Amino acid sequence: MNRQWWHNKIAYQIYPKSFYDSNGDGIGDLPGIIEKLDYLSYLGVDILWLSPIYQSPLADQGYDISDYYKIDPRFGTMEDMDRLITEAKKRNMYILMDLVVNHCSDEHLWFQKAIQDPEGEYGNFFYLADEGEKKPCNWRSYFGGSVWYPLPGTGKQYLHMFHKKQPDLNWENPRVREEIYKNINWWLEKGLAGFRIDAIINIKKPLPFSDYPADREDGLCSPEAMLSEASGIGEFLGEMRDKTFAKYQAFTVGEVFNEKPGDLEKFIGENGYFSTMFDFHEAVIGHSPKGAYDNRPVTPEEYKNACFTAQAKIGDTGFYSNLIENHDEPRGVSHYLPGPPCEAAKKMLAGLYFMLRGIPFIYQGQEIGMENTEVSSIEQIDDISARGEYETALKAGLSPEEALAAVSLMSRDNARTPMQWEDSPGAGFTKGTPWLSVNPNYHRIHAADQMEREDSLFQFYRKLIGLRKDSDYGETLVYGSFAPYLKEQKNLMAYFRKGPEKTLLVMGNFQKEPQEAVLPGVAARIVLNNLPHTEIKENKIMLEGWQYVILEVK
Ligand code: GLC
Ligand code: CA
User: What's this model's pTM, rounded to 2 decimal places?
Assistant: First the structure.
């Protein structure tokens, strides 16, 4: 495998609206990120991915862009953005923006022009169809309801895979692709290191539109049905790579769900469409086709098996990006650990995913162990996806209380509550009123405490990051092969990372009860431990509840 500059890097996702508010309006902003660069640099991360900060009505919190060349004034100015890129460079950090080009906002000029003249040039920027008795197809949008919605005052309708304020761009139109590539290059010229690429698998639709078997009582079919019918996305993605990213050695990470078997090589192999893509095998465990209300909790065995499946699939084809949470998912420690999670368990989960082969991503607040939040009514939920799921739950016959309880486990607000910097009103995130309520546990969980406490989760993350860059172990942890160990032993997740020089054994006891495990040979050294002691007797290790160790083995 050819070595790339980003192979040994650690990425960190910033959700700007909730990271740090520098001017007291309750909304996180770019100057706020700049103020916290030293914090991030102390943590040790290199690549910073910013969720969208472009001009947007924020119907889907910025994933609905109305001008790809402007910064939304709520987040700051273009000068702030330039300063962020410069200040990051000074600290050897790289900035990624979010590339949201499956759709734009209905307030984008292109869409406004399409409304004015659906038969004109801009009508062809979108998927339009005449309104008639029957919709062109029975696809359900990701946020609920049909993908078709009337184009105001025109007798036509347009397609939106997500919210109705997010009309899909027509990638079949070369003019659309040209506009997108122009914008990508414009940003790369500014000094961006690359992009996280949003919802990209949706850009290729099976045409002409047709119905697929309905999978719920609404008579609609899930978006996955259309994805499995679509073919030929590679032409778009290869073109995009060649006309943009490749020229800049950009780092790109695709948000790819439902790729086709055998596509991994094309997507993220040598000269793939992207540098890497997220491993979502864990994120989809327990998801029900009926809706989020029917999802079930994840067991440690399922988590382990999903990680091992993904690792086996990718082999040395390329690098997955590994994560336990992001702005669309519940907090990892609330989702994967039976609650309420203690700090030792949080460290174990961190250590287990961090040493998998691939690029580790940390989502803001994860490094201090932020947890899911509490809500007492649906009005307190901002997330449009959770609101849609709440409706689905009610329609399925759940009581409002049951629907709220079910939906609050997956609401995207869980990850979007403001970053907890310190134990002061507004959690140190803002001096004003935060746009979304702070998690009430901020008295207990906040960065100020974690930074100064030697045995904190934050300090543990620093050690994990340090190991991946360590002159003794970095090579093995970045490039070494992956092999499961004692896979059948319940609630034990263990694996080897093997390099030409060294072999490391990573072990986590995924339960509160102690358990014993046989070692494969002599443990030469304990490289990392989340508890003060380790009991090794001959060829056995006695792991305490939630204990995590990395051993160098001979
Ligand atoms: C991606 C984003 C999500 C957004 C959706 C539509 O999944 O991560 O936040 O709602 O795309 O852009
Ligand atoms: Ca602000």
Answer: 0.98
